[in-house]
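Private note to self, pasted from the team thread so I don't lose it. Backbone tokens:
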């Protein structure tokens, strides 16, 4: 891979070979200067009339990411998400303008013709040619800089340097030369791809393996404890506080605890009371502490999606299984049974619920298909209020759902065939 000087190395290689094209014994143009500076600098140094020298200028006006290389060989990090195991290469495309300066008729066109023909005949720069060019740079390159370009690694990168013509519309050309603050001259745009710059950030490398022990496992199932699924009760897709949840998998007979983690809320809860432990499954109860209001710091598990894993002692260590998602949904208390609600503008409805809803959660109440966000609250509450503006009447009782962070309180009885609505319902009159 190349280092940061590879971009300058590409320009130096092109300049070297264009010098060889123009300044050779068979040239009919005489001495030609090949430069690699900004056009506005040349504007002030080029003479006028017959005294103006012949000059061809390379100007790299844009650098863009290479789309193909940008999406491969992504950075590799250790499980901690910090330790770097591999550096992603910086893949760049270089966009050039090749401009000809001449004082007499057709000389600029001749200069441009030689350059375009050279680029056409050399669409790929061979590694040997790059080494020759970087080892024979003109005196305009100071010794330290020339030596550094020779060590840029441009010839050794995995991708070859390719040259392709580019097309600029009239608007792009006009904008570009206006920005350069220079008079337009005959110009050929082209692109060089791809320059791969390898970052030199420090990496971590694993130590060699001292001994490999390979054993045949007669069963296709994993010999390690693992969880395959988590089943809330009664066929529900979500669990509520107080529900018995079944965990299925393999080699779970020694499970001692269940871990429920929610990174969004910064929660990690351990449940040690496991029911009916078997090698293929066990059960546990989602904690449902009695928490009368008010509770500024409730200890119940807030509604949300948790990552569930099991802990299994193994000698002096504890093995943690893979994680499987478990959704804990809110639930409207059974004591809420108003039967009917009056329709109208700005109708306020308050419902008791578990678990406590937190101020950072998005909470709404759905009466049939009508939804209202919770009124603002600054401390956890188990009786949020909602204002419907307006609340439309319904022809019959409709289900009522409490929605917290996208999870709805269960309102379908999955034990019936076909499933039927159950739970709280009201009729809006």
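Design output:
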């Amino acid at each position: 891979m190349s280092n940061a000087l590879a971009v300058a190395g590409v320009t130096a290689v092109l300049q070297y070979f264009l010098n060889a094209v123009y300044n050779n014994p068979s040239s009919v143009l005489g001495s030609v200067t090949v430069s690699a500076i900004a056009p506005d600098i040349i504007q002030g140094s080029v003479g006028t009339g017959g005294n103006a020298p012949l000059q061809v200028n390379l100007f790299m006006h844009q650098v863009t990411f290479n789309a193909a290389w940008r999406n491969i060989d992504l950075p590799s990090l250790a499980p901690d998400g910090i330790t770097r195991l591999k550096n992603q290469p910086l893949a760049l495309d270089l966009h050039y303008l090749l401009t000809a300066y001449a004082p007499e008729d057709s000389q600029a066109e001749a200069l441009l013709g030689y350059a375009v023909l050279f680029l056409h005949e050399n669409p790929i720069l061979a590694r040997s040619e790059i080494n020759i060019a970087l080892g024979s740079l003109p005196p305009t390159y100071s010794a330290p800089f020339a030596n550094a370009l020779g060590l840029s690694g441009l010839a050794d990168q995995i991708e070859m340097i390719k040259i392709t013509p580019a097309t600029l519309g009239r608007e792009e050309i006009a904008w570009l030369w206006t920005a350069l603050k220079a008079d337009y001259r005959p110009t050929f745009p082209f692109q060089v791809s791809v320059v791969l710059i390898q970052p030199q950030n420090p990496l971590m490398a694993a130590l060699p393996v001292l001994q490999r022990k390979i054993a045949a496992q007669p069963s296709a199932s994993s010999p390690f404890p693992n969880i395959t699924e988590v089943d809330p009760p009664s066929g529900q897709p979500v669990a509520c506080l107080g529900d018995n949840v079944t965990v299925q998998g393999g080699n779970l007979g020694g499970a001692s605890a269940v871990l429920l983690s929610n990174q969004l809320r910064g929660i990690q809860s351990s449940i040690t009371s496991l029911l009916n432990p078997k090698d293929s499954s066990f059960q546990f109860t989602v904690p449902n502490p009695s928490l009368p209001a008010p509770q500024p710091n409730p200890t119940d598990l807030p509604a949300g999606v948790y990552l569930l894993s099991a802990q299994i002692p193994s000698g002096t260590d504890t093995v943690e299984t893979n994680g499987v998602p478990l959704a804990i949904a809110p639930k409207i208390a059974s004591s809420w049974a108003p039967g009917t609600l009056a329709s109208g503008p700005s109708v306020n409805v308050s419902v008791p619920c578990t678990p406590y809803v937190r101020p950072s959660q998005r909470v709404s109440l759905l009466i049939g298909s009508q939804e209202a966000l919770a009124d603002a609250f600054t401390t956890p509450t188990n009786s949020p209020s909602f204002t419907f503006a307006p609340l439309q009447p319904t022809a019959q009782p409709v289900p009522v759902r409490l929605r917290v962070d996208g999870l709805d309180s269960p309102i379908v009885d999955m034990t019936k065939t076909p499933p039927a609505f159950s739970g709280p319902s009201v009729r809006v009159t």
